[in-house]
Structure formats: structure tokens, C-alpha cells
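Supplementary Methods S3. Complex input for the S-adenosyl-L-homocysteine-bound model.
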Amino acid sequence: MIKRTSFRVITFGCQMNKSRSEHLSYLLSRSGFVCASHPEEADILVFNTCAVREHAVERATNAINQMIRNIVSRRGSAPVVVICGCMSELLQEKLAQKIPLAKILVGTRGWEFIPALLQEASTREEKAFLFPKEEDPPFLETGYLRERRTFTYLPITYGCDNFCSYCVVPYVTGRQRSKPEALIIQEFQDVLENGFREVILLGQNVNSYGKDLEGRPTFEQLLKRIEGLFGREKIWVRFITSHPRDMRKSIVERVKESDTFCPYFHFPLQAGSDRILNLMNRGYTQRDYLEMADFIRNAFSDVGIGTDIIVGFPGETEEDFRETLKVVEKVQFDVAYTYVYSPRPFTAAYSLRDEVPQKVKEERLQILNNMLSRIHAQKMRKRVGTTVEALLEEEEGPYFLARTKSNLRIYVRKGEGVQPGERVKVKLQSLQGTRIIGEVTGNDI
Ligand code: SAH
Ligand code: SF4
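Predicted complex, serialized as C-alpha cells:
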């Protein structure tokens, strides 16, 4: 075994990947490797990758090669490079040509074998490939070397059964597997004992939690159990992502009844036109979406609605695109991630002609982003002068970065006796560009 060899895991992509990287760091440290504080100092570099858009794949490949080259030129020797995660699962052996210095290539399964592969890496000349294809085991992944101290992720499902026609996620992560409730409760306990103030439950579609488990427990039941056991603790619980097709009023009501759950719903629209939604295989109409968004807005005095939107899906006309803008204007999203459609191998839409010209896609993205920025600015202006509750997350210059219960990002002026991890009352006072700035008016609530 290599003695006290150091490693660093570098993550691309979504929160699920961030959380899985923490799990991988745990697996490596449990096997005797030490987590380096910076990639530059690590003997082993593990890249946990994303495949959701082609652009992400290209960017990641270039960034990885560049980073390895920089380290080699500074140190005169190469780190042991492991590539794992979605991009690796998608490209498999082909990735070895794109990243020539990669020594170990692993997909989205079989991560428990990575420490052993690393232990024998120094005695093996050739590259190691690990892409297990067997039936998906239950989702029992647990144990994390956590990066942050105030909030943390807790995955409750892995994989996805939805097969939206543009999306590669089900092909690279497999069928949905839910984590058994008992394990979630145990992890929750651990998070509390470690002093975290906020937990983010993760899944590609949290609303469908439990469909694959014996007895088919529902997401509402899981929330109820969490509330029953931990509702008296000073902890906030959020969850992402809520698929609009599986969004139920009973989930919104559960959030409303509790002080623990945060009124923020990440509820991806993807497109506003019924024709495109149908081609995307999303399983809801614009009307369904608007009704649920209305229900959510009316249920709370302060609620955040977040979304993801794709422009330029094959065949998207100007008229279709205007339907997307119409929904954006109506729902007044608080958070939005917007993307240009990217054809992905294996997906149903891959065989459709990607016919919206790149220039048109980019123009649409610009128009959409302008509208979202205008909505955001209006909302921020209205907020000035109000008082909110927020969790202080980390320091940034003279400010703490903080988030309200409804997921509004705010900047809080540093003051005497307050520190990250505290929940405080903040008076929002001014805008600095897109930032909203406030001052603490009440400590540790
Ligand atoms: N499970 C989540 C999303 C996971 S992928 C959900 O269903 O909402 C994150 C986001 O990437 C998606 O919501 C979608 O907006 C975007 N995305 C996925 N595939 C894409 C593609 N082929 N091109 C462009 N954007 C895509
Ligand atoms: Fe992809 Fe759709 Fe599953 Fe989200 S719900 S991960 S967009 S297939």
C-alpha cells in the first residue's frame, strides 16, 4: 500500500456530484489516503465529471488536461489521475484518448473499488477501466468527508426513470434507486451531531422518492418522519429537484405546516409550449405548471420558485419560445438556470434534427436572460427595507454570504459577535448591482 498518499477530488456539475465527491473523499480517507488542502499538493487527483451538455464535456476535458499539464510542469512528475462520474460513464474507454494521462477510469458505479485500484496503481503500467454493468444495487451509499460546515447535502435518491427526451442522466446514472428511510434518518442524526444548520435533500426527482422501495413509502411520508424526529432542532431542510409532473399539493402543504422545511421549490419548467413539453416527454402542460406555481405562491407569504429552462429544442419556433417567455413573466421566477439545447447521445431527441440555428438559440437565451434579470432586479428593489431570517454561510470580503429560508441569496455586513453557521435577523438595506446588502439586527434565532 502507498503510505499516506494524498488525494484531492475535483467536482464538475450538479449538487448530486458535489455530494458524491464527498462520499468518494470519505471512501479514500477511510482507506488511508489523506485529503490534500489543494489539488497542487495532491499525489492523486480524482475528477468527478458531468455529461449533461456537450459544452460541459468539452470544458471539463480541457480543464482537466490543462490542470494536469500545469502540475507536471511545476513538479516534474505526474499525479495519479482518476476520472469518474457521468462523462466517464458516457465515453468509457474513449475518454482515455481525450485525457491521455488518466490512469484509472471509472463510471458512475463501482466507486467502492477506487481505493483498491489506487493502491495497486504504482505497480501497474497499464490503465485501469471499471464500468460495471450489473443490475443497479439499492442506494446504500453513505459516509461523507464534508466540504462545508453550515449546510450539507443528503442524497435520498440516485438515478432517474423519467427519460426526458433531451436528457442523458438516466443513461449514465441508471434507474432511480431510493435510499431506505432508516439510513436517511441515521445520516440526519449524524448531520445534526456535527452541528449543521441546514440540510439539502437531493434527488433528480425527489417527489418520486420511494417508488422503487418495498411498501412504496412516499416523499410526504419521509418529510413527516423527518419533521417528527428532528422538527424541534434548529435546522432548516430544503429539497431539490421537484419534477412538475410529480409535484403534489400535499408536498406543498407538508412544507407549509412545518417550521423545518424551507419554502423553496426548484421546479424546472424546461419549456413553456405544450408542443415542446410533449416532445420533451415532460408529462405536464403549461396550464398544469402555472396552476401548481400559483398554488405554491398562494400558500406562503414568502416563497422561492426556481427553475431550469432550455431554449432551442429541435423544432422550437418563435411562437413556442414566446410561450416560454409568457410563463416566465407569469411565474416571476426567483432563481433560474437557462441553457441552450445540446444534443446528447442515446437520448430520444438525438435523432431529431437539431434545426434551430446556433445564432437563434443564443439570441433566445439572451432575450430570456434579459427578462429574468429584469424580474430579479424588480424583486430585489421591493425587498429593500424588509427584514428577513437568514443563515450565514461563508465569508466574502466585508460580508457574509447568507441565504434566507426561501433561498434568497443576500450579503450581510460583518459585525461583532456573529459568525458563519448562525441564523440571524437581517434588515435589507441597499442594492449593489445585483447584490442585496443587509445588516444583522438579531442574533442566533
Ligand atoms: N432532474 C432535474 C435536472 C437534471 S439536469 C430535472 O428534471 O429538472 C439539469 C438541467 O440541465 C435540466 O433541468 C435541464 O434544464 C438541463 N439539461 C439537461 N439536458 C440538457 C440538454 N441536452 N441540453 C441542454 N440542457 C439540458
Ligand atoms: Fe433528466 Fe428529466 Fe431525469 Fe431530470 S427528470 S434527470 S431532466 S431525465
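Residues 52-53, 166-167, 169, 204-205, 241, 243, 268, 270, 308, 310, 339, 341-342, 344 surround S-adenosyl-L-homocysteine (ligand 1) (CB under 6 Å). The chain has four domains: 6-130, 136-262, 268-382, 384-442.
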